[in-house]
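Dear colleague,

Following up on Tuesday's group meeting, I ran the structure prediction for the two-component complex that the binding team flagged. I've pasted the input sequences exactly as they went in, so you can double-check that nothing got truncated or mislabelled along the way. The structure tokens for the whole assembly follow below. Feel free to forward this to whoever is handling the docking comparison.

Inputs:
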Amino acid sequence: MKSKLVLLSIVFSLIFTNSIFADQKQLVGADADYGEHLFGECVTCHNSTGLGKGIPKITGMKTNQFITKILAYKSKEKENAVMQMVAERLGEEEINSLALYLSKLK
Amino acid sequence: MTKIKRRTFVGLAAASTTALSMPSIAFGALPRVVVIGGGAGGATAAKYIAKDSKGAIDVTLVEASKRYYTCFFSNLYLGDFRTYGSIGHNYYGLAVNHGVNMVHEWALSVNNAAKKVNLGSGESISYDKLVISPGIDLKFESVNGYSAEAQSKMPHAWKSGTQVQLLKNQVKGMKKGGTFVMVPPPNPYRCPPGPYERVSMIAHQFKKSNPTAKIVILDPKNKFSKQGLFMEGWQKHYPGMIEWINAETHGGIKKINAATMEFETDLDTFKADAASVVPAQRAGRIAMNAGVNKGDWCPIVPASMQAQADENIYVLGDASIAKSMPKSGFSANSQAKVAANHIRGSLTGSKVFTPRFANTCWSLVATNDGIKVGANYKATGEKIDKTSGFISKTGEDSNLRKATYEESIGWYSGITSDMFS
């Protein structure tokens, strides 16, 4: 029984460590201060309290979810002229910095 | 109440490690920024300087009004898509959440050498950096016969507030089957698609309650923003109601008579039952007083929004020559963030990032028929250059137009929250 619990906790810690590692590995060149600065561009439209109708809330978005969406706009796979334009000029450093900053917001 | 809150905020910030590392704070004096004008440029600048400096900069916003009615979305109030109350905002959030010192007075003059702003009360405020974001003044004399006195008969309604309420009242009270004349301003002016969205919203009113009414647009220009999209929308939603006459066709407005409601052109004399005349514009008076203008507008350094004439003054929004950006609330908000970052860097040594500018303008043509135009910009040595952009297409699917309108509602909520809370 005890050994099973130990094994379980090892498995859990491995999964946990891997997911953190995966997130950090993606965030090459991320700088939370730069992310906060860039976020100023987002909140012209995305209400920072998340109350706006017609434009979704982005605060509290998971890192991977945010990156996937931005990349989909960047490749024009996802429709929306404004977001395609916003994503167009975001490089890896910008996207990762924003992702890091967003992940720190509630 | 506000003042106490501000002091509390500054006091707390001064006790923090970051703030104590600032030499000026060690001597007990915070660097001071004064912002003149509480619109999309000024309110945003005041907020971001105060928020990001975390109490290391003393920020004062000078704005005569305690309640600010946005110009953007005032057309939607004309069309009954918004209430008047819903486009009004106060400065409580800036004071309480960010410690901005609110001074509800007129800024009368600027003493550049002494770095002081003189207020209507006779007092003055010192600054290390001054932000001027006064919006526009109207050049009444640009339309022969128009004047400050005539504005109650033919409201310009180009600075929101009671003029917009007056215009709506006149539109709703216009005689059945009457003619409404709209005179848009010549370039450059605040909100390029604004006059044409206004016409759309007035047509929307007439369609409901005065369907045989006509709208004549006597334009001093030969083309206008989102022209193809508006023309298509007018044909679709208000067939036969709107006639746009360009400068080439009418040959120029020679004279208007507010008493008889007549508009004299080479083509004809047009008689109106109600009208809106938007004259040419220039930077708000305080910019002229500060000597940062060149003619009607203020040249700026593209990378920072500093006035070319005075490095301690920043000019934002409509008052600035920020070409290729249009004069819009979105542009002013974007420019304010660039200036705020630059001001904070120069006063506290914080990092100054590469400036990024953007703009999007949404317009409403009819119920659930929204259109938009937008662009990214970057600073070059000479100007704020457009790097990419988009515009809605004619013939778009109605679901997309509805989504665009809903997006504009989200944007309004976003930008006003960004400015005021």
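Residues 1-26 of chain B have pLDDT under 50 and may be disordered.

Cheers,
M.
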